[in-house]
Amino acid sequence: MSSPNTSIFRTLLLAESAANIGSIIPALFAPELALSYLVRGPSQITPATKSLMQLFGGLVVLATAPLLLSYLEERQSVEQVIAKRRLTYAVMGIIYAGQ
């Protein structure tokens, strides 16, 4: 049985993963739609900004994978859970440090 702190952590991982997945789909497959909410006018949606939005979507996919791996921890040893969480923290740290 998991402790309350682990339960909160897993719930937050799932919430962030859901938000990421919700932003991945428009960023990758409909960048014009995603950009229409971010820029002032349609003239600012250029091929370059569409490409950057798709690149952003790809980076979010890479960031979401370790989050989901950390969430799916049923019936694993403590060492496996710790290893997956370290991977998650390292990936998220690299992403946020690069901003």
In brief:
The protein is mainly alpha-helical and 99 residues long.
Number of strands: 0
Instruction: Please report the distance between the alpha carbons of the first and last residues.
Output: 37 Å
H and E string: HHHH
The total of helices stands at 4
Helix content: over 70%
C-alpha Rg, in Å? 17 Å
Unreliable stretches, pLDDT < 50, 5 or more residues?
Answer: none
Main β-sheet: number of strands, strand sense, barrel status? Answer: none
What is the overall pLDDT average? Answer: 84
Label the structural class.
Answer: mainly alpha
Tertiary shape: elongated
Beta content: under 5%
The oligomeric state is: single chain
Task: Please name the defining characteristics of this protein.
99 residues; mainly alpha; 4 helices; elongated; membrane; transmembrane; transmembrane helix
Describe this structure in words.
The chain crosses the membrane at residues 12-31, 51-72. Keywords: Membrane, Transmembrane, Transmembrane helix. This protein is an all-alpha fold and 99 residues long. The protein is built from 4 helices and no strands. Helix 3 (47-71) packs antiparallel against helix 4. The protein is elongated, with a radius of gyration of 17 Å.
SSE diagram, text form:
Blueprint (H helix, E strand, L loop, with lengths): L3 H26 L1 H6 L10 H25 L6 H20 L2
Helix pairs in contact: 1-3, 3-4
